[in-house]
Amino acid sequence: MENNSVGLVKTQYVTFKDEFFFESGRVLNPITVAYETYGSLNEDKSNAILVCHALTGDHHAAGYNHPDDQKPGWWDNMIGPGKPLDADKYFIISPNFLGSCFGTTGPASIDPATKEPYGLKFPVFTVKDMVKLQKRLIKYLGIEKLKTVIGGSMGGMQALEWAITFPEMVESVIPIATAGRITPMAVAFNTVARMSIMKDPNWNNGNYYGKTPPVDGLAIARMAGHITFLSDASFHKKFGRKYATLEGIYDFFGYF
């Protein structure tokens, strides 16, 4: 373990029992948030930083959950003593966003009314809904104002939403590789990805919990998404024309 690692960290959970109102008008309660923290909150609670993860990320942004973990959290090179998000100076909060499958209430969570997973009955949610739930967490921690909110991709969208919806609660935001809205082409790619999952025989109308999940459809969906992430240089590296090692033919297939 590196000297400037935050070391072993434990996922924390808080459950809010009062009603949560979605932008759609749907209401849900109770609702649980999974999160990790790094560093210490100072006396006047003015050194808090919120880290927002991307679509396929989670709240485990730095350090290790278990001594035998082979890899640290996804942003370990950024969070820790002496690193850009310095855990010796700041109190860094990394929540799992609303609707995820990594601890915060989402479609895989149990509906108290039916004792079954919500599945497709889970409310449609927006980035604004994610941020509204994050605000509850920040208030629960006794913090009135954040030093900054930082995130990349969909995490960057959350950072922008903080500045729009709760400007009085943030000193600054750091949105990385993101946008205020996705383009029609991105919506089209998302449609291809979604249909890939829904056409998997194991999709079962979204009721696959406790059964074989639609992993083949998800893999194809991830490929479609991956295409939208790549720079021109990355495209050439992964899919550029090059001779294969056998028989002097071109390798036109590339690898994700």
From TrEMBL:
Every AB hydrolase-1 domain range: 47-236
A GO molecular function term, named singly, is: homoserine O-acetyltransferase activity
One Pfam match: Abhydrolase_1
SUPFAM superfamilies named among the record's database cross-references: alpha/beta-Hydrolases (SSF53474)
Q: Which UniProt keywords apply?
A: Transferase
List the InterPro entries hit by this protein, alphabetically: AB_hydrolase_1 (IPR000073), AB_hydrolase_fold (IPR029058), HAT_MetX-like (IPR008220)
Superkingdom is Bacteria
Some GO term, biological process aspect, for this entry: which one? Answer: methionine biosynthetic process
Record's protein name: Homoserine O-acetyltransferase
Organism of derivation? Flexistipes sinusarabici
